[in-house]
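Bench log. Compound arrived from synthesis this morning; before running ITC I wanted a structural hypothesis for how adenosine-5'-triphosphate sits in the protein. Inputs:
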Amino acid sequence: MSEVIIAARGVEVRLGGTPVLRDAGLVAAAGEILAVVGENGAGKSTLLRCLAGLHPPLRGRIEVLGGPPVDAAAFWKQIVLVGDEPAWYPGLSVEEHLELARVVHRGGRLTVAEALEVFELGGRANLSPLSLSTGQRQRLSLAMALLRPSRLLLLDEPERGLDAAFRERLAAILNGYARDGGTVVMATHDLRLATATQARLVTLEAAA
Ligand SMILES: Nc1ncnc2c1ncn2[C@@H]1O[C@H](COP(=O)(O)OP(=O)(O)OP(=O)(O)O)[C@@H](O)[C@H]1O
């Protein structure tokens, strides 16, 4: 049996007094891809934030990489969360953002040149991220996430803004990450992406 990377059960979250997650849970092993699905407001993003240690649940038990998730440097060395668009550094180009990620995270799964090629950003390398289209910026966010070493990817609607061809490429990229032993948990509305990655589905239902 592969190493258990996430074990979460009985997770309960209330936001502003309203129940958002009730008895939610999932288990993910090394090398697995999970797709968290459910209607708008079902609590997918909230569950990802709980797994990332950014939101402590009211009840329930969450273990990530053998311990409770904590918003701390050692934890973030192994885990990447791609959610809302990050704040881009003023004055730095696409290529420089990738270089920064590589330097800060010491080494990486991809070189900057490989990341530019895989994420089809070569022709945009010298532009500011703010000059990119929505889908190109999402590709840069994903490139920065996949370039650095990690054991767990938490992706909130990674398909956001991506065209159909790049969604296929993303499936191949995530399959490669999982083949290398990484674990992916993605909240998604794209069942084709879930199918193409042979993801195990975890369905959330709105708690309220
Ligand atoms: N600060 C808050 N106060 C009250 N309710 C909140 C707050 N933040 C989020 N919620 C509610 O929590 C619920 C879950 O939100 P969440 O973003 O986790 O859903 P989701 O499944 O990711 O939705 P989507 O598919 O639209 O991205 C929503 O009904 C939302 O309105």
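What the model suggests: The beta strands are 4-15, 18-29, 33-37, 59-64, 79-82, 152-156, 183-187, 200-203. The CA atoms of residues 155 and 186 lie 4 Å apart.
ITC booked for Thursday regardless.
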